[in-house]
Fold:
Amino acid sequence: MDSWDYKLYSNQLYKVPDVVFKIEINTSLCADKLPISDEIENNHLKWLNDSKFYGDVPVTNTLNSLVPYIYSFLPEKYIIPMYRVVDWVTIFDDLVLENKNYTPEYLESIFNRNAIHDHFGKSYWKILDEFDNIDVPRELMNDIMRKYVKSIIKSFSVNLRDSTFNEYFKIRRKTSGSKVFLSTFLLDLKCNNIASTIMVNPLVERLCILISNCNSLLNDLYSFVKEFQSEEYDNYVKVLCYQLTKDLTYPYTTDIIQTSMNKIKDIIESSYEEAAEIGELIKNHSEWNQEEHTILEIILKRIYESAYGHILTYKNTFRYISNH
Ligand SMILES: [Mg+2]
Structure:
């Protein structure tokens, strides 16, 4: 069959390699301390419990620390709804999308403010109202989230087993949340128009692709244990394992997963190196005017900081650590 057969790889010995961040930045982010106040973290946990997504089962830890780490530069008032909406979509994905527990009409209704909502829809629009209260139009956020959920659903029908690196990441970038990040990482600056002209610059585009790939690959490395038994080729470690063994006879040597993971570590680290070089090219590009230059400095700083935050997320996160 065309699906991933984990039993073929159950003899494997491996350890997730330590990925080194190859870009020099000034940052106060560190793995053992969340870059948000205890108050925000506790409020978020309370929100998760009050929302009762898992019925009456108490949630004792926040799901992951992605938002605090990758949006560490945003003022707290933006972090609060961002943290909620990202967890909302994570839970919605786990409980509804992955279980194919929906109809197209149901999805349409979730993203339509005037529809009748179940508790997913109600909690979703409550979060969007919170955005609206801090001058981030709720329909702007709705547009971003709706497109994101649609791309997740579209990816279900694609089998990535035989995909090349570029094919895999073309799909993966759409479903990894990179788009959501790139549409929101300047939320507080109200400079979306300037930003969008800058974002189509080929150098900036290449930088975003490189960093998005790194973020997806980090997720693949650290969620591999959790995803090992699922049949989908939803993880680049699986794709590489398949491609490394398709012409071999079973049983395979015990280093296939490790070889795939090491290859991924190399890709991530060399992508960081290229991203650092591109940052220099962007800064020294002579065509920018003063205003563009100022915003580009911010963009670079934030993209790098969030890339580093991505690594720390997996070193910190209960969700991933608990699955080892
Ligand atoms: Mg994953």
